[in-house]
Amino acid sequence: MKYRLAMWAGAGFLVAGCWALYALVASPHTNEWMRNLWAVAGVTCPAILVGTHLPLSLYSVLAANAATYAVVGLIVEALRSNRIAHNTSN
Questions:
Q1: Degrees (nearest 5) of the Cα angle 39, 43, 48?
Q2: What is the C-alpha separation between 36 and 58, in angstroms, rounded?
Q3: Which end of the chain, C or N, has fewer beta carbons within 10 A?
Q4: Is the dihedral of CA 62, 64, 67, 72 positive or negative?
Q5: Which residue has the higher pLDDT, 35 or 75?
Q6: pTM of structure
Q7: CA dist 86 to 5, 68, 79, 80, 82, Å?
Q8: What pLDDT score was predicted for residue 2?
């Protein structure tokens, strides 16, 4: 289960990194290009929503997103293992 949680955290880190690269590429026109993507960005990288009110560094966004995905992964894996244990006992 440790490796699965590490994969969840790595996925969160990569998602935040991809959003950072997208913002870097779109930097002259970020507000225009991101207008339609804010909902997707808010769901996949919740630290972006905090960053609209407080200044956050790239490293803190990467770490926060990795931690968020690790917590979500912990919940999903716990439910998954509980479901597998319940199915094998019947």
A1: 80
A2: 22
A3: C
A4: negative
A5: 75
A6: 0.79
A7: 22, 27, 10, 10, 6
A8: 84
